[in-house]
Hints:
The chain has 380 residues and is mainly beta. It contains 4 helices and 27 strands.
Amino acid sequence: MKRLLSLCFLLPLLVGCNSGPKVTLLPDSQFDTIIDGKKVALYTLKNAKGMAMQVTNYGARVVSLWAPDRAGKMSDVVLGYKDIHSYVNNPGERFLGAAIGRYNAVESAIFIANGKFTLDGKEYQLAAYNNGQCLHGGLKSFDRVVWNVDSVMPNKICFSYLSPDGEENFPGNLNVKMTYELTDNDDFEINYTATTDKATPVNLTNHTFFNLKGEGNGDILAHELTIRASHFTPVDSLLIPTGELKETLGTPFDFQKPRQIGSRIDMDDPQLRNGQGYDHNWVLDRHTDKNLEWAATVFEPVTGRQLEVWTTEPGLQFYSGNFFDGAATGKSGQPYDYRCGIALETQHFPDSPNHPDFPNTILKPGETYQQTCVYKFRIK
């Protein structure tokens, strides 16, 4: 019955009637399957202004997100695949649109040196596969599990997942709840909570890739980026944070004023060489510890689309799509080539368990992890 109501509610979008700008939705049938004994499906959310977003509970992934340009034309502005088979057996980027956990790091980066950390006197060896490091929570992390769908509303979906004690060698049963909401203010809001029965590192985020020209429409080098950060965390040649907080002023990492992403990305800078472009954590200049605050803005001058990032987190990982190589084909039928999308991941800092001066990422029994991230779409 709920499925029927959802289809009835979405009929105007499906038929492209005169109620608003037209969007082209992916068929539910391309995602209907069973993985690990659990049902996988595609869900469509929309707001009153005609924006639409499709998500799947396989990895709690954002599959598509349609936003207007300054002329009112709708385009899908996130990278993704057209069917579940491509997500499970992708030839290119694994993490498109996915929930990341238990601990976020960036594409080609790590969070714990050598895949190890020590907690309460015990050393934990995690799954190491990225130059000997643990990337984005492990070999089968939150992007490769089927999340429970607790409820679906016209503009909101509620997920949950119980990560069992020992999964990917992390300690504790971690109970995660997460909501995606498409608001009538044209905001994509993500809320996370988590609890555990043993102390464990937790650093959740979302790995959606954006191209405000529309997915498959070239690179993001002309996008203008502003980041509210006067420091970033440098990395070594294996992209392990050194523990230093380095000033951005006078470096290619200074985005305190709007800059084209491509204007300095190929400069002869050791940090850019390490990341093969931007693949770093910015230390946000926050006014409070926990309030929702503005972190960054991306503007695409041709379409007039603008994306603001708001967060309760102390860090922002900006990745400029340096490892896209055209091996994967997106929903529009176009290959995902070099630097065709950007990820802006709100987070605590990578490798925090090994750097006591970094903000704490250890969640203990009796505590509740909470995070809010809002991607605000605007026209300029």
